[in-house]
Specification:
single chain, 333 residues, alpha+beta, 4-stranded antiparallel β-sheet, 3-stranded antiparallel β-sheet, 10 helices, 11 strands
Length: 333
Amino acid sequence: MKALKTSISVMELQKIIKQWRSRKITDSTISKLLDLYLGLTAYMNEEKVYPIENFYDIKMSLRFSTTQSLIEAIKRSQSFEFIQDNKAKQIKAFYSPLWYHTNSKNETNEIISTTSTSPTLSQAFAQTLVVDNIYNNIYTKGSSSDEELSPISEPPSKNFPSKKNIVTPESLAAAKEFFHLINKDSTQKAQILTPLINWFQLHEGLTRKHACENLIYLVNELLIPYFASQARFMKSNHTGRLCWLNNLLKSAHGQHLLNDAARTNREKRKQAVHEIKSNQRSNHPLSEFEWTDPESEMRFYDDEMEGTVNIPEDAPPRPSAGAAWNVLSNQWV
């Protein structure tokens, strides 16, 4: 996907930022608008516009508090334009002039400038964004091997289009096949999956095994449901999907997914360690004053000075809470 304008001068960029500041836009919002203005292709459709189906994902990626605040910031900047469905009086998309222009063959008569003072624009905003999380489907997931996803969301507003991104058996199968093909292709695997394993290993300080577990969770529980829920995923070919995935992983939303996978598996490992320790501390078949690891069958006891002390396999049961094993005499003292 190539922009109409592939370069922008420093002076032009400074002018845009100065205009936004004069329109009471904060610096934190300016950085987000710059991302959209220069182009977040992961959230564009084939016409190089940001469609309404992606508004929620854009909001999440750029960390706007609501979709309404995202649109209001775009409107206030006066640097983007909106495409409206004149019949339904609803916003269909917005775009950056660096990527799309009004001379395009696509609906040139439906372009609305953000500088327009027409009252129908604010009305369109109100109608289109009644429910901020309309595209935030929550899925009930089973095991990753035979996963069934059921979209659950708030009922749509009567003023909002009923068509939403949903997971279908076909889209779920296509998303799984997409990642299967990546894993099967050694080049694509090395370019996409291996760097993710490296990232988990480096940033979380994990073993290779645990880093791979993070990747499996990221793909099965986060990325596959994400792509399966996007209506445009089924319309894309494999190359387009690869570009989309790469752009997603570079975005703020992609970083959020990585952190989510890392955090979830970190909690799983903590829980596993806690359960192992609980099992160890509840297993003392030889004496109430010592324990035996259920897996290794290693005997041990706690000492205030030395911490955990291993007990030889042929040692007699520990006789009391104060008894210590003497390695020289091979006796409890």
